[in-house]
Amino acid sequence: MTKDTLSITDNRTGKIYEVPIKNGTINAIDIRQIKTGAEDFGLMSYDPAYTNTASCTSRITFIDGDVGILNYRGYPIEQLAEQSNHLETTYLLLNGDLPTRPQYEAFTSDITHHTMVHENIKELIDAFRYDAHPMGMVMSVVAALSTFYPESKKVRDKDTRRKQIHRLIAKVPTIAAYAFRHRTGLHYVLPDNELSYCGNFLNMMFKRTEGTFKVNPVLEKALEVLFILHADHEQNCSSTAMRTVGSAESDPYSSMAAAIGALYGPLHGGANEAVLRMLNEIGHKNNVAKFVNEVKSSGGDVRLMGFGHRVYKNFDPRAKIIKKMADQVFEVTGHNPLLEIAVELERIALEDDYFIKRKLYPNVDFYSGIIYQAMGFPVDMFPVLFAIPRTAGWLAQWDEMVEDVKEQKIARPRQVYLGAGKRDYTVMSKRA
Ligand code: ACO
Predict the structure, then answer these.
(1) Does the active-site annotation cover 365?
(2) Integer Cα distance of 336 and 398 in angstroms
(3) What is the CA radius of gyration of the chain?
(4) What is the domain range of residue 351?
(5) How many angstroms does the Cα of residue 265 sit away from the middle of ligand 1?
(6) Which of 129, 230, 355, 406 is the most exposed place for a label (fewest CB within 10 A)?
(7) Are residues 22 and 110 both part of a single domain?
(8) DSSP class of residue 186?
(9) 133 counts as catalytic
C-alpha cells in the first residue's frame, strides 16, 4: 500500500518517524520531533541559500527549469510576449486572470492617474551627486515614498494595499526617468497620460526640445516585450527580499526598496550591466577564447556574466525570446558591435565541457543589455530597466504573502551556532 508519507529512521536512537508529504514537500517543522533525548532541541534542516526549500505556496508564476518553461498564472511567457502588453500582464499577475476590456480600461486609467510624483521628489533626486548610480537613486526614492503615503502602513487593509500597488506601478517609471535625467543634467519631463506605459517612459527618458518625442513603434514594442519577460520570476532573491521584509508588516515602499537592493547585485538584476562591462572589456571576438579560459581557470572568481541560473538548467526561455527580438531592434537602431562578441562567447561556452557539465546557459541578462544599449539607454540604467517591470511581480508576491494569513508569519530562519561557548568578560588590561 502506498501512502503520502515519509518514514525516517534516526540511526542515533533507532526510532522511526513518519511525516506527511504534501505537494511534494515535507514540512520542516515536522522533523523537529526527531530528538536524541529530552534536552535535544530537535532536528532542523540546513539550507543556507534556499537551494531546496520552498518558503511559500504561490499561484502566480510557474517555472520548470529542466525543460525551460515559464508561465505567468498558467499562460506561457512566449504567448504573453507575442500578444500581450506590460500593463495587461501586470493586471494578470496581480489579479490572476487576463482582464476583460472594461477591466483593462479601468486598470489603465487607474495607473495613468498615479504617474505624477510629488514635487518634493524632484528635490530629493536633486540632492544626489551628479554621478549617482540611478539604481541607488530609485531605491532611495521608493523607500522615501513611505513617508509621503503613511496610510500604506495599513497592510492588512485590501483597498489600501491596492492603492499603493497602483501608485508604485505608475510612479516607478517616472522616478526611474527622473533619476536618469538628473544623472545627465537634463530637465525632468512630466508624465504624458496620452501615451502607453512604455511610450510614456521613453518620452520621459529621451524628450528634448521637441513638442512630443516620437517613439519608434518597433522600439516601444521591444520594450513592452522586455518588460513582460522581466515582470515576475517566482521566489528569486529580490522577491524573497520583498516577502521577507513585508512579513514584518512593513509598508510596501520599504519592502520594495529592499527588493530593489537585492536586484541591484551583479549576481541578480545587476548582471545585465555587468555583461555589458564584460563585453567591453573583452573588446573583440578574437579575445573571447582567452577570456573563457580565464573564467575556467579562476576557480569561480571570474564568472561569465549573463550565464548560469539557479533554476534553469537547460535554457532560459526569456533569453531565447530576447535573442530573436534583437534582430528587429537592430534593424531600427543599427548594429551593436558588442553583439558579435556576445554571439561568439555563447558559441564557445556552449561547446565547452566546463559550461556543459555545470549546465550553464545564457540567462535573461545576456542579450538584454545589448538591446538596451542599442535603444539608447546608458549601461547604468540597465538594472533600473529590470526594476520597473519587476515591480509588478514584487507587488503580486507581496500581496499574495499578506493574504496568506493561514501559513505566512514573520520570516525568521534558524541558525546553526558554531561560535565560542560561554566565557566570562575580562577587563581590557587583562586581555592577551
Ligand atoms: N560563469 C562561470 N562559472 C559559473 C557561472 C558563470 N556565470 N555560474 C556558475 N558557475 C559555476 C560555479 O563556479 C560552480 O562551479 P563549481 O561547481 O566548480 O564550484 C558551478 O557553476 C555552480 O555555480 P553556483 O554558484 O553554485 O550556482 P548558483 O545556482 O548558486 O548560482 C548564479 C546561480 C548566481 C546565477 C550564477 O550562475 C552566476 O553567478 N551567474 C553569473 C551572474 C548572472 O548572470 N546572474 C543573473 C542571473 S538571472 C537573474 O537573476 C535575473
Answers:
(1) yes
(2) 38
(3) 24
(4) 271-374
(5) 13
(6) 406
(7) no
(8) P
(9) no
